[in-house]
What does this fold into?
Amino acid sequence: MDPRFLVTGAGGQLGSVIMRQLAAAKHAAVGLVSPTGPHPHVGPVRACDLCNADTLRDAARDARPTHILHVAAMTNVQSCARAPDRAHVTNVDATRSIVELADVVGGRLIFTSTDLVFDGRTGGYAEDSTPRPLSVYGQTKHKAEAIVLANPRAAVVRLPLMYGIPAVDRPTTFRAQLQSISRRTPIRLFHDEFRSPIWLEDAAAAVIALALSDYVGRIHAAGPQRLSRLEMGRLAAAALGVGDDAIEPVSQTDVPFDEPRPRDVSLRSDRFEARWGRPAGRPMRDALPQIVVQFRDPASASGRPELD
Ligand SMILES: NC(=O)c1ccc[n+]([C@@H]2O[C@H](COP(=O)([O-])OP(=O)(O)OC[C@H]3O[C@@H](n4cnc5c(N)ncnc54)[C@H](OP(=O)(O)O)[C@@H]3O)[C@@H](O)[C@H]2O)c1
It folds into this structure.
């Protein structure tokens, strides 16, 4: 049977790129977008509040998916800290509804989780490292992981910080940083906060490859490098062909936050590499030339058909 995908969070950074890649591969796919959010540039969508189990059930019944990619979440760490109940309803309770749906339709379920399930004390986390989330966001994603893994056809893919240009008109931190760096507007970036960043395009491809495989359980899909935010900014400046003198290195300890920030949540992706014979993501330096093109000409990132 040909796969039919249902993608939640289709109007988000990652969901929009997944929608574009599924369309390019000629897979049947329906995206669910939030009633108030933007629509991805490519693909049919339906508005649905995932916290409303009835509308979610209707949307899923109509789509008859063989593969559910549950990408939607309340992703802003500070918003989750300030509204923990809403974070729980969105990230945990809605995930439970999706798992119940997946049980009914009987297909594959892929859930996108995060490196922020770890406390960041050591870095280099593997799939069997012990999660100890410091934030409400990380706690809700960790709880959701356990709910998803009760489904015998499900995989939880932990993603690191993602960078790139989404296939949807929505502001992102990374795009704002590129804007500042390209205009040489002063910007402050942490020299002591480390991730294994992955390009949105590579993350989307990894999620789709995982969905089309028979892999079940936890898996990490990260970029191949451990980079600080400062190093990421400097690489971006080099790719943009501008100096990096407007980037000011700062420490995590210089900036007050509602919750402690993990210092190093770099991930190992051994299971992905063993299964697919390559890292999930390419080095940031190799992705940046295409990102700069997309940044300067957003139409090239949209995947929308060319207008005459
Ligand atoms: N961004 C990262 O660097 C990163 C890193 C690690 C893991 N992840 C994980 O990767 C996934 C995708 O992240 P992202 O950066 O693409 O997130 P995003 O851009 O914030 O997109 C999330 C999407 O979920 C939608 N959503 C939230 N609540 C909803 C609800 N009640 N009903 C329907 N839709 C709802 C949002 O709607 P609106 O359009 O209205 O906002 C948005 O379109 C998430 O599971 C996240 O936890 C992200």
